[in-house]
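sorry to bug you again but im stuck and you know this stuff better than me. what follows is a protein written twice so to speak, once as letters and once as structure tokens for the fold. mainly i need to know what kind of three dimensional shape the backbone takes. anything you notice is useful, everything is just below:
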Amino acid sequence: MKVHGQIRAGGMINAGELEILLEGSSQAHEIGGERIVVRRKLASPRRLLSLLSSSLAAKLTVDSIEGDIVELEETRARIVRGNMVKVGPGCEIERVEYKQHCEIDPKASVGSAEQV
């Protein structure tokens, strides 16, 4: 599944492969899948407006994300679990649990990261 824009989901989003190109504020309770990629959509008129208002900023807020391969940008999450996890710029993650590999960008905030 490939999403361009915004998401509002009170429950779980589950797909084998999920790519979210953020444009504006998005929310979901849980996200699960084999491969999960969240990126800020480039070259968007909203991107310029987001400099004026934080409510228009491209950001995903989610309670938990769980997948085999997880690559995130501009994501706020309580917990992220995966075999291979890449936490990119603009992320605010309370806890990362990974099995094989974890990479955290210097422009990201992670409370704790633990290999399990």
Observations:
- The beta strands are 2-5, 8-22, 25-40, 59-72, 75-87, 92-104, 109-115.
- The chain has one domain: 2-115.
- The CA atoms of residues 89 and 106 lie 7 Å apart.
